[in-house]
Specification:
Blueprint: H1 9-12, H2 18-31, H3 40-49, E1 64-68, E2 80-84, H4 85-91, H5 96-114, H6 119-129, H7 131-150, E3 166-169, E4 174-177, E5 189-190
Antiparallel strand pairs: 1-2, 3-4, 3-5
């Protein structure tokens, strides 16, 4: 009898990382408390059934990931298949746990970046050198010039009723204030609560 899990290594494992990808999927699913009952042979069967190669598996670009139907149940041979990362994200069930994990990932990445002594300098230089930044800045400048040209001069500067005013709040109530009214009322400070 022919073994349905038999495969030619060069046909499927073209980058030599198929077994590592299988192990990583098992480790990651267990970290998320998701049952992982796939054997390596069943994993190979799913890869071959999807007509994929090992180099096409992953989370970057247009690569494929092992996903559960409806994002429910465990990873078993009859409850999962390979789909693109984009398709997987579209059917992913977002839980408070995944939101919290996402926020933690962003926070730790930001903190790691800030540890770099040249962080602010790099960010500032990188943003201002990018072509898209220059284009957006030029468009914003043109919009402002067009807006300024169409403004009615009778209502600008000191003729504008809002000139010199600012918001104050006590945490519950927001008020407009101007320096000519004197000191801020007791318990109020500059700012506004939305």
């Amino acid at each position: 009898m022919k073994n349905i899990f038999a495969y030619n290594k060069s046909d499927i494992d073209d980058d030599g990382k198929l077994y590592q990808k299988y192990l990583n999927k098992g480790i990651n699913s267990r970290k998320e408390n998701i049952k992982f009952d796939l054997t390596f042979e069943e994993f190979i069967f799913l890869v071959r059934d999807a007509k994929l190669k090992s180099s096409q598996l992953g989370y970057t670009g247009e690569k494929y990931v092992l996903a559960r139907y409806g994002d429910k149940g465990g990873y078993t041979v009859d409850n999962c298949r390979f789909i693109t990362q984009k398709e997987n994200a579209a059917e992913k069930v977002v839980t408070e746990k995944s939101r919290r994990a996402s926020r933690m990932n962003v926070r730790s990445a930001f903190q790691a970046a800030v540890q770099d002594p040249l962080y602010r300098q790099k960010v500032s230089a990188g943003i201002r050198k990018s072509e898209s930044y220059k284009i957006r800045a030029e468009k914003a400048k043109l919009r402002k010039e067009l807006y300024d040209a169409t403004k009615d001069k009778r209502y600008s500067g000191e003729h504008n009723s809002q000139t010199g005013t600012f918001w104050i709040t006590n945490g519950n109530i927001n008020k407009k204030w101007r320096p000519s009214k004197g000191e801020l009322p007791e318990g109020f400070y500059k700012g506004r609560v939305m």
